[in-house]
Amino acid sequence: MIYENIQGFNYESGYEYVIKVKVEEVRNPPADGSSQQYTLITQVSKTKK
C-alpha cells in the first residue's frame, strides 16, 4: 500500500482499485517527504465494495 499521493489518480471511497503506477526517484527530497514520486499509468479495475 502506498501512503503518498499518486499523481493523476482520484480515489473514491467505497471502491477497490487495481492500478499501474510509475515510480520515480525525487532528487533532494524534503526531510519529511518521500524520496519517490508516484504517477498513474492506468487504472486496471475499479470494483464497488
Automatic annotation (TrEMBL):
Top-rank taxon: Bacteria
Pfam families linked to this entry: DUF4377
InterPro entries for the chain: DUF4377 (IPR025485)
Residue span, DUF4377 domain: 2-46
UniProt protein name: DUF4377 domain-containing protein
Record lineage: Bacteria, Pseudomonadati, Bacteroidota, Sphingobacteriia, Sphingobacteriales
